[in-house]
Task: structure prediction
Amino acid sequence: MPTITTPNTGLKICYDEAGDRANETILLIMGLGVQLTHWPDEFIEALVERGYHVVRFDNRDIGLSEKMGEAKPPHFAWQLLASRIGWKPRVPYKLAEMAADAAGLLDALEIDKAHAVGASMGGMIGQLLAINHRDKLHSLTSVMSTTGNPKAPRAEKEAMRALTSKPASLDEDVLVEHGLMIARAIGSPGFPRDEQRARERTRANVQRSVYPMGLPRQLAAIIDDGDRRKRLAGVTTPTLVLHGEDDPLVKVGAGEDTAKAIPGARLVTIPGWGHDFPLQLVERIADEIAGHASGVSAKVSVAAQ
Result:
């Protein structure tokens, strides 16, 4: 996959694109500690079939994008406690800088505007694109994400414990089992996985890249960004909020809170959906995103006449 240097942040970002560049672009932004390959290929194909040019990329500090040196983040528990009393320890980088990476990628690819679709941490980055780079967006879809509201429902302990646990070693087989353990803890109870396919995809991701330092630094950026509700109140980008009703990591109440915080946002929740992208939901999710994007574009076209 190619890499390109963003003109604003100067980072090398690994990306992949599919579909006709003459079509409107959907920019896919992935979540905490996971690579662009966590977007299912079937999902990319579904968006292309619906008439979109699709760009996905590795966030900084993960996958094949540029890594951020040896900077150490604050200890997770200490940073969380400090944030609750209004004090912010220094972090290696800000979540807003990750949003600037995404905006810079569009500039580097000479794409004026895109429909941003962010999952989990990617949804937070998408929200910051709408806050800080609204001129780069046609629309926003925030998926399985949150506003950072400290009063939003908390993750189930097992899901959070799985996400923040460390593998016993960096042996490939150990990392594969660790990844599968996380997937089981946060996955969709209503949509059973193909275990063999999950194992093959997890191994392919491990073989593509392993960089343990990225996740805690990205997590530090999330905690540092705090509560976005006041900032989201000024968002004018047409927004869709998608959330699973059975998400154990980012509870559906966080999606409801997101839709409430963004003026005019539309909320769609799906029973049985957890914190993943089950193949059984690919067509439904693609329909929701494409329908939102096309509706926004149609309104803009009518307004321009």
About this structure: The chain has a mean pLDDT of 95.
